[in-house]
Design a protein that fits this description.
Elements lengths: L5 H13 L11 E2 L12 H12 L17 H14 L3 E5 L2 H11 L6 E5 L4 H9 L3 E5 L4 H13 L6 E6 L11 H10 L3 E5 L24 E6 L9 E5 L1 H10 L1 H4 L6 H16 L1 H22 L8 E7 L1 H13 L2 E2 L1 E3 L9 E6 L6 H18 L11
Parallel strand pairs: 1-10, 3-4, 3-5, 5-6, 6-7
Antiparallel strand pairs: 2-8, 7-8, 9-12, 11-12
Helix pairs in contact: 2-10, 3-10, 4-5, 11-13
Length: about 400
């Protein structure tokens, strides 16, 4: 079909030449690439919950948007339970984290406002900002000082609207943690709204796995997003915050208004996942035991250190060597994926090692032994973690 779509064909050829062509590959080997951090996605807990929900008549499909007939009891009960669990006035269940972030930033910031975002914020936030009416500016990754300087500059130029500070609590490609106490203090001092994407923290971090922003979540000037397809093992997303912001999204958020509601069955499973977080501390403790072991083995076997979370980037730099290394490791039974621009900044292509709940300590050790051998044979020197940003 190259004669029909020549520009698209040329674009794909360029990606192949650069080592950035993407393709879908099947699941194979030990899971070091998914976001199933607690192992809930494949758990008997959720399998049993799905069967029980179907038995009691919970529908598989919603049949329409939430504002039409798609609003099921499971949605309503989940939102009440999520607000109580995460300590906020209200919650809104949406089909996924990307759609939820897009809805937040395209709907809530108004004309004359400023969205101030971390330089490494997720693509969904960028898409939301592009659809929104507010001005947007970035600040240096994890730098409250630079964020404060950007606010001062904007105000000196005459900016007077609401400020929205957008951060992730755990960054998906770096594994770094946001200095949330400093950002919360900045938001309070500047009368700003702090929007925290807890996608990679929910389930693992904070009391009962309620996220790194939980200590601030009860404040009306804090809005949090908890995705349900990572640590919670299902899919969807929960926007948690002040009642007025949730109601505004229901009334003005195009990604909510015009979308078919998430599956009621899915909502029922998220309810069970939240209950599991509250009642099964052992699942989270086991995950952290594996994470701590991985940090130790990365240092002992590969000389890699400075990791803060379940996400361990091994930054190679150039695209083609990164993907070649990933393929060699995959061939030895470890599902480790290479990440390239535009997902990460140019020149920082990397392996993204993700610690999931289906792993064991011996398998983790074997992975890092394999990685050490491959790095030595390829004469590759991965970047130190503090160079990632």
């Amino acid at each position: 079909m190259s004669d029909v779509f020549p520009r698209h064909t040329t674009g794909l050829e360029d990606l192949r030449e650069q080592g950035r062509f993407r393709r879908l590959i099947p699941r194979a080997g030990h899971d070091f690439s998914s976001n199933d951090y607690l192992g809930l996605a494949q758990s008997q807990t959720l399998k049993t919950a799905a069967l029980e929900a179907l038995e009691r008549g919970v529908p598989v499909g919603a049949g329409g948007s939430r504002l039409l007939r798609g609003n099921a009891d499971e949605h309503v009960v989940l939102e009440a339970e999520a607000a109580a669990f995460f300590g906020t006035e209200a919650a809104l269940f949406m089909g996924g984290g990307f759609n939820a972030n897009q809805a937040i930033f395209s709907t809530l910031p108004q004309r004359g406002d400023l969205v101030l975002y971390d330089a490494l914020i997720h693509a969904s936030t960028h898409d939301g900002m592009r659809l929104g009416r507010a001005e947007s500016r970035s600040f240096i990754h994890n730098s409250p000082a630079d964020a404060a300087a950007q606010i001062a500059s904007w105000r000196a130029e005459g900016g007077s609207g609401q400020i929205w500070i957008a951060v992730e609590s755990v960054y998906s490609m770096e594994g770094t943690l946001a200095p949330l106490p400093e950002f919360a203090a900045l938001a309070k001092r500047e009368a700003a709204v702090l929007v925290v994407d807890e996608a990679h923290a929910s389930g693992l971090f904070g009391d009962l796995g309620r996220g790194l922003a939980h200590d601030y979540a009860q404040n009306p000037w804090v809005l949090t997003l908890h995705t349900c397809g990572k640590g919670l093992g299902v899919s969807g997303a929960l926007i948690c915050g002040a009642q007025v912001l949730i109601e505004f999204l229901v009334n003005r958020g195009r990604g909510f208004i015009f979308a078919t509601a998430p599956s009621p069955l899915n909502a029922a499973l998220v309810r069970v996942a939240l209950r599991d977080l509250a009642e099964n501390a052992g699942r989270r403790a086991r995950a952290w035991d594996l994470i701590t072991h991985a940090h130790s083995e990365a240092t002992r076997l590969c000389g890699l250190s400075g990791y803060q979370s379940q996400i361990l980037p091994v930054v190679i730099g150039e695209d083609k060597p990164t993907m070649a290394l990933a393929e060699r490791i995959q061939a030895q039974g470890f599902d480790v994926r290479g990440i390239r621009p535009p997902t990460v900044p140019k020149g920082t292509s990397r392996l993204r090692i993700s610690l999931t709940g289906t792993l064991t300590k011996p398998v983790i050790t074997e992975l890092f032994e394999t990685l050490a051998s491959e790095l030595a044979q390829s004469n590759l020197q991965p970047y130190a973690l503090d160079q990632v940003a």
